[in-house]
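Okay, is this right?
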Amino acid sequence: MVHAGVPLDNQWSHWPGVSYALPAQVWVGPHHSAVITGIARAGIDALIELAVEKTPRGRTSRLCDNPQVQDAIGRADAILNAGRAYRSATITEVWNTIAAGEDTTLEQRARCRLAAVHAADCAREAMDLVYRQGGSTSYRCESRLAECWRDLQVVGQAVTIMPEWYPMGGRVFMKMDPGPRLR
């Protein structure tokens, strides 16, 4: 990667193929957001597995019989998939632009970064929903839910998916200079 303040020129464009022609601003955020959304998916699956097996202390029914757990799993899945869909749509648009031999627009690059950040935010929200429903099992070191939550927090700290990209995108849409990181 180049240093901050230096335009992110694509050093790979001399090789054939769409992947090598993508502007750096287009792939830098989505790759981290793919990791964080994958971790959130694993977290949802971990709660589903736990809910089928666990009978919480002092209760007679399994965790999966709790309407709040059912609601959290349904909401988490919807939230996560909504973020993934937006990311996929924007990446597809940029991919098709490059494949057609055209240059991407600043708005396309901004939307791609915003979609990556939004997908990461959706992953955080989904993971928080399922983590909360796992009860005391969620924080045990050996728990898959705990592992997913910790991993998600680590990936979520990547600068490529931090909320600071939202105002940069907003500046682009208002025809203002977004700064060198998005140009």
